[in-house]
Specification:
- The protein is α/β, with parallel strands linked by helices and 405 residues long.
- The strands form 2 sheets. It has an 8-stranded mixed sheet with strand order 6-5-7-4-8-9-10-11, sandwiched between helices. Strands 1-3-2 form a 3-stranded antiparallel sheet.
- α13 links the parallel β8 and β9.
- α3 packs across α10, α8 crosses α15 and α9 packs parallel to α10.
- The longest helix has 45 residues.
- The radius of gyration is 23 Å and the shape is globular.
- It starts with a strand and ends with a helix.
């Protein structure tokens, strides 16, 4: 069963979209009247949001010639798949079925995660109201309404106060100029956010004879294994590259079996390694591949022994790229602790997962500015090979400036 959301100015309009897309077999889960929030609410009209469900088997039977990978996306990158063969379509259907199985247990925790986020925001907001130190002095003293609205909106989206002040430097003078509007202020901050996030890069394969070796690290439960499966699917199916998988996550047998299942579906080799020496030998055996993806065990930032094991493992790889996988649903304080621990492994790029589990995107900019690491991919669901894209800095900037749902 797959859920999709549809919007319309009226309930009838949204229902027609459901019928056109999913057909008469669709099941209506909920109907909500949405009123836009934040400082854009005066420019947006209320709308109706309909959540509908459809049985994947039923939908597949009605649309035999369509596959999930043929969809287009506004975000450039990994979710823009085209020109697939019938054999690849079979791969996709199997991957969809498998990913649905692995995502089932995550759904049980989804509502709890959302509730925790809401409670945290309420507590933080209450602190902000009672403390003069949470707002820049020029905003409070000069009573600049435009800046105060924008400032509070950035706080609402979990952006750290120090970075908000950095974004708003010099705007007090702008606000006194004749003809300056809130849209002008927002435009300036939007451009500043985009500039700060502009340093990003995904996996690029070289033109030499050696394979690109990429290792994925991060704490437990952030979705490393599923993310690796999505990336492997893209390069195997869309790019038609030779991909190999290595996993050192022997702490969780389920993770090994999950990755092995994906490897079998994609018809790519996979090896399990138990030591740094074995890792080096296995990489050498895959010298005819285009891309080697390495899944490491999830490490607690507080477990020093495990961190030392990970460092020793990665030190055996001469040329590598490292991606630190983080969940956007994690509190910023915890993200700070995590990134501090992983600084010892060398330079890394950032992948943010679980964008579908939060409406606050401020931590993407927070972590980017704290670590000065390059952004890479974002994921927004459990579906393999979908629900992943190259980071879209314009979309993130809009989310940071927009209201929370």
């Amino acid at each position: 069963m797959k859920l999709k959301k549809y919007e319309g100015l009226t309930e009838k309009e949204a229902m027609l979209k459901v019928k056109d897309d999913l057909g008469k077999e669709a099941l209506i889960v909920s109907v909500k009247n949405i009123k836009p929030k934040g400082f854009y609410k005066i420019f947006k009209k209320p709308y109706v949001e309909v959540t509908a469900a459809i049985d994947e088997k039923t939908k597949a039977g009605e649309k035999m010639n369509e596959t999930p990978l043929t969809k287009k996306s506004d975000a450039r990158g990994i979710d823009d798949f085209e020109n697939l063969t019938d054999d690849n379509s079979a791969f996709v259907e199997m991957l969809k079925s498998l990913s649905a199985t692995h995502s089932k247990k995550d759904e049980d925790n989804y509502e709890n995660i959302k509730k925790e986020k809401r409670d945290e925001k309420k507590e933080e907001k209450q602190k902000n109201i009672s403390s003069d130190e949470t707002e820049p002095i020029d905003i409070r003293n000069k009573e600049l309404p435009f800046l105060k609205i924008v400032y509070e909106q950035l706080l609402e989206n979990d952006l750290e106060e120090a970075y908000i002040n950095q974004l708003m430097v010099g705007l007090g003078e702008y606000s006194y100029n004749q003809g300056i509007t809130i849209d002008d202020i927002i435009s300036i901050i939007y451009k500043r956010i985009v500039k700060l996030l502009s340093d990003h890069e995904t996996i690029k394969l070289g033109h030499g004879n050696s394979p690109k070796t990429v290792a994925f690290v991060g704490p437990t439960g952030v979705g490393k294994t599923t993310t690796i499966a999505k990336i492997a699917s893209y390069f195997r199916i869309n790019m038609e590259k030779k991909v190999a998988l290595i996993t050192s996550d022997t702490y969780r047998i389920a993770a090994v079996e999950q990755l092995r299942t994906y490897a079998n579906i994609l018809n790519i080799p996979i090896r399990v390694v138990y030591s740094p020496t074995e890792l080096k030998e296995t990489i050498e055996s895959f010298r005819d591949m285009d891309l080697i993806l390495i899944d490491t065990a999830g490490r607690s930032p507080k477990n020093t022994e495990h961190q030392m094991e990970l460092t020793a493992l990665l030190d055996e790889i001469d040329e590598k790229e490292i991606f630190l996988v983080l969940s956007l649903a994690t509190k910023y304080k915890d993200l700070v602790n995590i990134t501090d621990v992983y600084n010892d492994i060398g330079n890394y790029k950032l992948i943010f997962t679980k964008l579908d589990e939060t409406s606050s995107y401020g931590n993407i900019l927070n972590v980017k500015l704290k670590t000065n690491a390059m952004l890479s991919y974002v994921t927004f669901g459990q579906n393999v090979p979908d629900d992943i894209s190259e980071v879209n800095v314009h979309e993130i900037a809009k989310k940071i400036l927009g209201g929370c749902e």
